[in-house]
Each structure stands twice: as structure tokens, then as C-alpha cells.
Design a protein that fits this description.
Layout lengths: L1 H7 L5 H12 L4 H24 L6 H7 L5
Length: 71
């Protein structure tokens, strides 16, 4: 019986825990949580785009041009 009890304990998925944390931080308001995540995602995209345009993000194509290889 002891092994059955140990096997029946549901393991928590780390992603589900993160989702629960985000929802709890917004008082269970899913719309508010989604809005915050979308705003955060937009900020990350803007940051990456700015870094790419300013030459701060190195890509294979950029490395090839630096080495004198024209793609």
C-alpha cells in the first residue's frame, strides 16, 4: 500500500507552477495575467529588434560579412 500511495502523488509540472504563480500574482484574473505577459513579450521583441538593428546581436550572416564572405 505504501508504494501505491507514493505512485499516486501527482508530480507538479514546472510550467504549470509558473502559470499558477502568474495567475496568483494577478488575483486569478486570467485576462490581466495575459495582458502583462503580452506587454512583457512586446518589450523583449523591441529590445531584440533594437539590438539587431544596432549591430549588437551577431548572426551567421553578419559573421560571414565580417570574414569577407558575401552570402
Amino acid at each position: 500500500m505504501g508504494s501505491e500511495a507514493a505512485g499516486s502523488i501527482e508530480e507538479r509540472d514546472p510550467m504549470q507552477e509558473r502559470i499558477d504563480d502568474v495567475l496568483a500574482a494577478h488575483g486569478g484574473d486570467a485576462r490581466s495575467a495575459i495582458e502583462t505577459l503580452l506587454l512583457y513579450g512586446d518589450g523583449v521583441v523591441d529590445s531584440l529588434s533594437f539590438g539587431y538593428l544596432r549591430g549588437r546581436i551577431v548572426t551567421r550572416a553578419r559573421l560571414s560579412r565580417r570574414e569577407g564572405k558575401v552570402p
